[in-house]
Design a protein that fits this description.
The chain is built from 16 helices and no strands. It is mostly helical and 307 residues long. Among the domains are: 129 residues, Serine Threonine Protein Phosphatase 5, Tetratricopeptide repeat (Alpha Horseshoe), CATH 1.25.40; 65 residues, Serine Threonine Protein Phosphatase 5, Tetratricopeptide repeat (Alpha Horseshoe), CATH 1.25.40.
Length: 307
């Protein structure tokens, strides 16, 4: 379906050598059972308190920018021997999400969900950890379940953004467009949801509506400092798709060329540029674009053929 919405995270949170990641995950998943087995009467009799909200919500930007919310060392040092609730495991789960350990985050959030089945935030973060493993059907179920539950949480305003991309990857274009439209009503400066809305609308053959959404995405993107060139490149590439849909080959070639100049690793856009240049009877330029597409694939470790 063209340029993907959410690429691999480049955020790095390194665990210290004296605190192995597996040990943190194991402690997080088991800590509630430890509290019960230590013979603490209070832990046995008291109802588990609600999981508190943290001040720094996990958003799409948190996965696209090289920033971290908490280090695994900080999380490990904060874990109590006898936890009072799910706060410690929630911190671990969020740290794992932000350090791209998505399978481990899923384990932690699954265990939390068993102990706090009515917590919409945990259900959302579980869906996010699954989404990042590209299991979009199961992620969609979690998002819809979280959406149906009562209560607000810090990441709630971004739920429809991720729901929209899950629907998009599943090929459900109208639900995807509906989710993105709902998100931009909540967050008018969410350029990636404007982009997603435009991409879904284009798949639905709503070309004029798609162009308006993509131009809005470009306005929002250009208003940021610094400008995210990768984000801008994929928006311009989609505008090139609209020009191609309208048989404006020269405009499409120009937009594709602008996109790959901003982000040379967009091999799919290089390939589109090659095809358009061939249609424009520019064989040498087309061959150069094909060579650039192959070089981009090699840089990213993506094979052009499926074995």
């Amino acid at each position: 379906m063209g340029v993907k919405d959410i690429g691999p995270s480049n955020m790095t949170v390194s665990a210290p050598s004296h605190t192995p990641l597996a040990a943190i995950v194991a402690l997080a998943v088991a800590c509630h059972s430890v509290a019960l087995n230590l013979g603490c009467e209070a832990a046995r009799s008291a109802a588990p308190p609600a999981v508190p909200e943290a001040a720094d919500p996990v958003t799409d930007a948190a996965f696209d920018q090289p920033t971290s919310i908490v280090s695994l060392e900080d999380v490990a040092s904060a874990l109590p021997l006898v936890p009072t609730g799910g706060e410690d495991r929630l911190r671990v789960g969020r740290a794992l999400l932000n350090s791209s350990h998505f399978a481990d985050a899923e384990l932690v959030m699954t265990a939390l969900g068993r102990d706090f089945p009515a917590d919409a935030r945990i259900e959302f973060l579980l869906g996010l950890s699954i989404h990042k493993q590209q299991r979009y059907g199961r992620a969609r179920e979690c998002y819809l379940h979280a959406k149906s539950m009562e209560g607000e949480f810090p990441e709630r305003m971004h739920l429809e953004h991720f729901l929209g991309w899950a629907e998009y990857h599943l090929g459900n274009m109208q639900p995807a467009a509906d989710a993105f439209a709902e998100h931009v009503r909540r967050a008018a400066d969410a350029d990636d949801s404007w982009f997603g809305l435009g991409a879904a609308q284009l798949e639905l053959d709503a070309v004029d509506e798609s162009e308006r959404s993509l131009k809005r995405a470009l306005e929002v993107c250009d208003g940021k400092n610094p400008i995210d060139l990768r984000q801008r490149a994929k928006i311009v590439a989609r505008l090139g798709d609209i020009a191609l849909r309208r048989d404006r080959l020269g405009d499409a070639a120009q937009m594709y060329a602008q996109a790959v100049e901003m982000w040379p690793d967009h091999y799919e856009v290089w390939e589109r540029l090659a095809r358009v240049r061939s249609e424009l009877s520019l064989p040498q330029e087309a061959e150069a674009a094909r060579a650039s597409a192959e070089a981009a694939r090699q840089r990213l470790g993506r094979s052009a053929t499926v074995p």
